[in-house]
Design goal:
The protein has 256 residues and is an alpha/beta fold. It is 52% helix and 10% strand. The protein has a 5-stranded parallel sheet, sandwiched between helices. Helix 3 packs across helix 8. The protein is globular and about 60 Å long.
């Protein structure tokens, strides 16, 4: 195949992913609602996975603090430890005991949730972690791309987005990885919205970690309050550290 044929072929396969996810939105909804209830009681979400699946969980968890200003609530764990994010750790995914050992330092309790991510639905690291977490009373869910898997049987809230064969046989970093990424986006974003960290489509609790976000936050304050002085809005933002706090302080001051 030529480069053009390859690209069109991959793109044609990728188009099927959102349709596969649409079929399992009810299952995603059930998991989201259950997670929200646990998090309202102080719970956290642990993502566990190996290879591409594990990396996707780590990415999603790492983006929660800067986006929503919430730390230590979403935790991504990958078979083989952090070094496996960059380099494959052979055999790490075959240990059914290690995932729970990786969770233990965080002192898990019954308010916490564990979401296993495995395209095949047969990864021992993920299955073992979910089984132990469920035995300990934690809420358990999974994201897989096959039906009737041991992974789905190991948890209470299974999600199976069946995307079909990959363009390159067995290369689950492609359609399966895309499906997992989209579902993770849906879960964490919906949870954060339902917990009140988004207002009017705005990330009102985001961290001011760079100039771009300070500028964005300043303009959000101007829009929310009607302040026309950019410098004053920026001063409020930097003083209070978050858009929400700055806007609330402005209205409490009676300056409007």
């Amino acid at each position: 195949m030529s480069a053009a044929e390859l690209l069109r072929g991959i793109n044609a396969e990728d188009k099927s992913v959102p349709a596969a996810i649409e079929k399992v939105i009810p299952e995603i909804e059930r998991l989201v609602n259950a997670v929200v209830e646990r998090m309202k009681r102080g719970g956290r979400v642990f993502y566990i996975g190996a290879g591409t699946s594990g990396r996707l969980g780590v990415v999603d968890a790492s983006e929660i603090p800067p986006t929503y200003g919430v730390r230590d609530k979403f935790i991504g764990l990958i078979a083989g430890g952090d070094s496996a994010i960059r380099t494959a750790v052979e055999g790490a995914e075959d240990d059914p005991v290690q995932a729970w050992q990786d969770i233990l330092p965080y002192k898990p309790d019954a308010n916490d949730c564990v979401i296993g991510i495995a395209a095949s639905g047969g990864t021992p690291y993920v299955i073992g972690g979910l089984q132990t977490a469920r035995e300990k009373g934690l809420l358990t869910g999974c994201i897989t791309c096959n039906e009737g898997t041991p992974l789905a049987e190991a948890c209470e809230y299974p999600i199976a987005a069946v995307v079909g064969p990959e363009f390159v046989t067995g290369s689950t970093r492609m359609k399966a990885g895309t499906a997992q990424k989209l579902i993770l986006n849906m879960i964490s974003t919906s949870v954060m919205v339902l917990l009140g960290h988004v207002k009017g489509c705005r990330m009102v609790d985001m961290e001011l970690s760079n100039k771009k976000l300070v500028d964005r936050g300043t303009r959000m304050i101007m829009e929310a309050t009607g302040i026309e002085d950019y410098a004053y809005a920026r001063e409020l933002l930097l003083k209070y550290g978050k858009v929400r706090q700055a806007v609330d302080a402005y209205y409490r001051s009676g300056e409007k």
